[in-house]
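Usage example:
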Amino acid sequence: MKTLVRLEITRTMRNKRFMFFSVIYPAALFLLIAGPAKNTARIGGTGLTTPLYYMVAMASFGALTAVLMGNSERIAKERAKGWVRQLRLTSLPGRGYVIAKIASAATVTLPAILVVEIVAASVKGVRLDAWQWGALTLSIWAGSFVFAALGVAIGYIASGDAVRPLTMLIYFALSILGGLWMPFTIFPNWLQNIAKWLPTHAYTALGQAIEVGHAPHLTDITLLTGYLVIFTGGAAWFYRKDTRKA
Amino acid sequence: MRTGPVSAMKPSRRSLRCCVFFNRLRASAANCPGHDGGTVAGSGGFAKLYAMSATAAPRTAQKGETGTPVVRFTSVNKSFGQVRAVSELHLQLHPGETVALLGPNGAGKSTTLDLLLGLRNADSGTVEVFGSTPARAIAKGKVGAMLQSGGLMEEVKVRELVKLACDLHPRAYPPQQVMESAGVTDIADRMVNKLSGGQEQRVRFALATTGANDLIILDEPTTGMDVTVRQAFWATMREQAAADRTILFATHYLEEADAIADRVIVLHRGRILADGSAAEIKAKAGARRIVFDLEGPIDEAALRGLPSLTTLSVSGRTVRIQSIDADATTHALYGLGLYPRNLEVSGLGLEQAFIAITDAATAEEATR
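Running the assembly step on the lines above writes:
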C-alpha cells in the first residue's frame, strides 16, 4: 500500500501541467477577486476583511477544485482503461486505493494553499500570528482530504461522459452554497439552514475561526470527519463492488 | 489451501510433462522425413502414444478430483439484459491442470473469467476458488491474472509498476526476477503509456506472474505478441505448469490450445459444448478426413474395423473416413492388403473440430 501511495504521488508530481495550473489557479483567482478591494474593507456578517475572507475562500476553493476535478476524472479514466480491474486482482484493500488517491491529491493542494497565503501576505498585506498561519494551512490541507475522497466516489458513480457534468454540478453546488465564492450570509435563511450542513461550509468555517483567533469549532470538525468517513467508506465500497465494465 | 495429498498431485504433473513431451514428439514426428515414409515401428509407436494421450487426460482429472478443486462453478448464471452470457455453468479445475477455454466471440469466455476473479457477480449459482470466494483467494495471493481488459497504470515506469505489483503480492518474487522472466528488463525504464501493444502485453504478463500464484488466469494472453515473444511466453507458462500450477487460458489461437493445454473446454453461448483433451475434442468431430477410391468390391465391415475410425461413408468407389489418427488408419488400410487410389488425407485441426462442434450446436439450437 505504501508503494502505491508513493507511486501515486510520484505520478502526480510528474504531471507538470496539472501541477502548475492547480497550484497557480487559486492564487490567481484570489488576486482577481480580492485584488481591487481595500485591504481593510470588511465583509458583512463575518467580521473579516475582504482579503482575509477570500484568502481562506480561495485556498479552500483551489484545493477543492484540484482534488474533486482531478480525482473524479482520472479515476473514471482509469476505470475505463481497466487499470482498476487489474488492481482489483491484487491483495490491495479498497481503502488502500482511496488513501493513495487522497495522498496524490494532497500533493497538489499543499503548494496551492501555500501560494495563496504567500500572495495574500505579500500583495494584500494580510498579517496573522505564526500559529494562525500554521493552523490555517494545516486545516485547509486536511479538509481537502474530504473532497479528495468525494472525488474518488464520484469517479465510481459516474463513468465516461457523465463524469464531468456530475462533478461540475456537485462542485458548483458545494462551492456556492458553502460560501466559497461569496459570503454565506447573503443567502436567504432557509438556504442558509440547508447550506450549513454542507462539508464546504464547515471547511471554510475552520479557516475563518482561525483567522478571527479562535480554535476551529468542534461541530465543524465533527461534520467534516463524518463526511470524510462517509466518502472514504463509500469510495472504498465502490472500488470493491464495481462490477460494471466501464 | 491446497488440501490434496502430495501423492495425488504427482501423477498429474507427470502426465502433464508427458503431454508436453508428447506434443513435441508429435511436432517432430510430423517434420521427420522418415515418418513420411511410414516405417512400421515409427508409425505404430506413434499411434500407441496417441491413443495413450487420448486416455491420459480423464485419468488425470480423476486423480485431481480427490483433492479440493482449484475452481468450482456450480449452476452459474449471468445475464446482461436479454443476453445470457453464462448459462447453468458447471465447471471444476483441478490442481496442476493446464486448461484452454475455447469459444467464438461472445461465447462467454471473458464473462466466465470475470466471474472466476470476482470482477462480476453471478446472478445465481456459486463460484468457489480454492474453496472460498474469489476475493478471498485473491487477497491471499493465490491467483494471478492477465486480462484482456486489464489496463496499466499510466505515467509510471515499467520498473515502478512491477515493483508495485510485487509489493502488493503476499508471496512475491523479487521484481528483478519477475521482469527477467517476463522479458521486460529492456523496457524497464520506459513509461507505461509509451509502450507498443506487444510490450504492454509483456508488462501485463509480468503483473500476472509477480508471485507464487497457484492459479494463473490468462485471457487471450498472446494477442499482439510477435512469434518470438509468444514462444518465450509459453515456455514460461510450461515452467509454471511443471511447478504444479493450475493454468486457465482463453484463446483464439487453436494451435495454442492444441499444443499447450492438457484439457480443452469449448464454450458456446455460455454453455460447455465439449470438455476433454485436445485429442478427445478432435475425436468428437472426427479430426482427420481420409478419402480414397477402391477398385472392385468394397468390404465395408473390414473398413469399419480400421483403428481410430470415427465415421465411414462409401459412395460408389469412393470411401470417406474420419479418423482421430490418420496414420494408424492408413497404415492398417494397407495392412488389409487394399490398394487405395487417389488417397487424400486432410489434416482436420482442432480448429475444424471446434468449428464442427460449435456449428452443430448452432444448427441444433436453430431446429429447436
